[in-house]
Design goal:
heterodimer, A: alpha+beta, Rossmann fold, OB fold (Dihydrolipoamide Acetyltransferase, E2P), 2 domains, five-stranded antiparallel β-sheet, 9 helices, B: mainly alpha, MetI-like fold, 13 helices, about 75% helix
Chain lengths: ~375, ~325
């Protein structure tokens, strides 16, 4: 178990910065997910922690010790690779025992630990099989087994589920969460799948172009994305974005688009006033579930209603995502599965303004976040 | 559209067209392959079959005796011939030393040049260069190196490094040194080829195995023993097979440098075969020797295939 601190980590590949100026503090027993699109530097960051990549600027500190120049084998970490990297010429048992054997642990102890891990991962019947002869899911479990027998300070996972089919992936996701609960070891998990990130991490680190975009609890990031990138990346479907202008009326501020007008709730008044928006432009972000079909009892003033047309619907069983248009604007609205909607239907919608976000039109940051590039909402 | 094509494909007419086009494909394939087939038949298969036939006769160029079938007599004769016995011993010795040595050195070189360092291309080229030289040229160059007397390159070199203690030797005409001398030059000439194959084998090992092993706590040496060597098994077996065949085929160097001497110390199966046929016109005897050579190579190949098949099952 370990605390991990990354201080100003920067890594170049040639002249291209793969990771730039990353700062992160991971507390003992935390499950941290590094998430971002491919090429965002998340795997590089993980490999830097593992010691598989070197020559970086900044400091990597585990339990107070700078490990910049410590080789991977002495870092007391275990890593699960995307393609599992099981040794094909060894049996399942030998694969799991290899790391212990290299560390000169007694045969008896190796036996105990491998059998214990095999029991946890339900691999008892496969111990004498060659790893090549296993299915993807089984190989994945062996790779996990190889990591947990070592009882390392820190687990690193590099997209470990991305080679599995959808059903198995969901099952393994659950297994991993359970495993983390059971072992209580600090885990750092890399994925490009934001659903995986949201469902597994205690905290997420959203990366883009080598830079940290936001660090925070999954729900915090979902509800308050730090910038337009995070708003678009976290959440599926992504946040709806409307380019608007702010109009100052006598007492209140109104958000104006070509197609509808919305009253700015008082909660945002201060932020909008102090934000120095160019030409009073602002980007309004609304999650699909924060747009509702208008019901008579909550009927807002006429101008606050959005007249939209449903273009097409994506029924997912428990819910329906409808892509709607209102004038030039296209956006996605979430309905419950029971709602009776169909394409080409005309519909009146209202936005739950209290739950919406506002972004700077050029700097793209969220306005409530102190104008920082990232905000830690943990 | 797709379904329509599928439905149509099932109609008898379509089936007929399909098989017709298949037949025409096959015909084209045969026509394309014909020149190569003909060449193989004419220059490899036919001479070989004729050789097997001659091995059971008394055929000798220019002999007044009529062609006669002599069953296994030629084989009995060659196996009781001391020169041929010595040739078998020499070839086996050559293979026994060269195969493990050359494989080990090739693997060593491959490991050395399989690093992403600057200038590796230069080393790769240098090590490979002897392979592209014809053996005749290599033999002549090494004849200068092995030249007897104090002025021979190797003698002069050894004399210099031992501060004059070295007594010049005639390597190629020394009964104990001639075969080792041939071994060294053969190794120098051939190792680049094996190195390239080993290198290809090394490069096909996924990098993540080494990364996983590094995290598992294996140092470089342990990675070599536990990852590289097991992963290279099939490549090593293949290289060993090729080297064994080349070792039994040993001829060019011998012909140019030693003529099998001194006192048969460097004679080989092929050398004896060539001598039997082209010096003594004894085609039947030479044919019997080639058949023995073929059987030796076949045995080595089958052994290798057996081992590598087991390996493949394990992998």
């Amino acid at each position: 178990m370990a605390n991990l601190r990354l201080i100003n980590i920067t890594k170049f590949f040639g002249t291209v910065p793969a990771v730039s100026d990353v700062n992160l503090e991971v507390t003992d027993g935390e499950f941290i997910v590094l998430v971002g699109p491919s090429g965002c530097g998340k795997s590089t960051l993980l490999r830097l922690i593992a010691g598989l990549e070197t020559d970086h600027a900044g400091e990597i500190i585990i339990d107070g010790n700078n490990i910049n120049h410590v080789p991977p084998k002495n870092r007391d970490i275990a890593m699960v690779f995307q393609n599992y990297a099981l040794y094909p010429h060894m049996t399942v048992y030998q694969n799991m025992a290899f790391g212990l054997k290299m560390r000169k642990i007694s045969k008896e102890e190796i036996d105990n630990r491998v059998l214990e891990a095999a029991k946890i991962l339900k691999l008892q019947d496969l111990l004498n099989r060659k790893s090549k002869a296993l299915s993807g899911g089984q190989q994945q479990r062996v790779a996990l087994g190889r990591a947990i027998v070592r009882k390392p300070k820190l687990f690193l996972f590099d997209e470990p589920l991305s080679n599995l089919d959808a059903k198995l992936r969901v099952a393994m996701r659950g297994e991993l969460i359970k495993l983390h609960k059971k072992l209580g070891t600090t885990m750092i998990y890399v994925t490009h799948d934001q659903v995986e990130a949201m469902s597994m991490g205690d905290r997420l680190v959203v990366l883009h172009e080598g830079k940290v975009q936001q660090i925070g609890k999954p729900l915090g990031i979902y509800e308050h994305p730090a910038n337009l990138f995070v708003a678009g990346f976290i959440g599926s479907p992504p946040m709806n974005l409307f380019h608007c202008k702010i109009r100052k009326d006598a007492q209140r501020f109104t958000i104006v688009t070509d197609d509808f007008e919305l009253t700015l709730p008082d909660t945002f008044l201060q932020v909008i006033k102090s934000s120095n928006l160019p030409d009073n432009r602002v980007i309004l972000g609304v999650r699909p579930e924060d747009i509702h079909e208008m019901r008579p009892e909550i009927c807002p003033p006429l101008k606050q209603q959005i007249s939209a047309r449903i273009e097409y619907i994506e029924p997912l069983g428990s819910e329906v995502f409808a892509t709607c248009t209102s004038g030039k604007h296209e956006f996605i609205v979430r309905f419950s599965a029971k709602t009776d909607i169909h394409p080409d239907q005309k519909i009146k919608l209202v936005i739950d303004m209290e739950r919406s976000c506002f972004f700077h039109p050029t700097k793209e940051n969220e306005l409530t976040m102190n104008n920082n590039e990232s905000g830690d909402l943990s | 559209m797709i379904t329509m094509t599928k439905v149509q494909a099932k109609t008898p007419q379509k089936l007929k067209t399909q098989s017709r086009s298949q037949a025409s494909d096959e015909r084209t394939a045969w026509i394309m392959a014909a020149p190569a087939f003909l060449g193989l038949l004419l220059f490899i298969a036919a001479p070989f079959i004729i050789a097997i036939f001659f091995a059971f006769t008394n055929y000798r160029l220019g002999s007044p005796l009529p062609l006669d079938f002599v069953a296994f007599q030629q084989f009995v004769r060659i196996f009781s011939d001391e020169a041929f016995q010595q040739a078998l011993v020499n070839n086996s010795l050559f293979a026994l030393f060269i195969v493990p040595l050359q494989c080990a050195i090739a693997l060593g070189l491959a490991l050395l040049i399989n690093r992403p360092l600057k200038g590796m291309v230069l080393f790769r080229t240098l090590f490979f260069m002897p392979v592209i030289f014809p053996m005749a040229l290599v033999a002549i160059v090494w004849e200068l190196i092995y030249a007897p007397g104090a002025n021979g390159i190797l003698n002069a070199f050894l004399s210099t490094v031992t501060l004059g203690y070295w007594q010049p030797l005639d390597f190629l005409h020394h009964p104990d040194l001639a075969l080792p001398a041939i071994m060294i030059l053969s190794l120098w000439q051939g190792v680049g080829f094996q190195m390239i194959i080993m290198l290809a084998g090394l490069q096909s090992i996924p990098q993540t195995f080494y990364e996983a092993a590094a995290i598992d706590g294996a140092n470089r040496w342990q990675q070599l023993i536990h990852i590289t060597l097991p992963q290279m098994k099939n490549t090593i077996i293949f290289v060993a097979l090729v080297t064994s065949i080349l070792a039994f085929r040993l001829f060019d160097q011998i012909w140019i440098l030693t003529q099998g001497g001194p006192n048969r110390a460097t004679t080989t199966i092929i050398f004896e075969t060539v001598r039997a046929v082209f010096k003594r016109q004894d085609v039947a005897r030479g044919s019997a020797m080639s058949v023995v050579f073929f059987l030796v190579v076949l045995a080595v190949t089958l052994l290798q295939r057996r081992i590598s098949r087991q390996e493949r099952e394990i992998r």
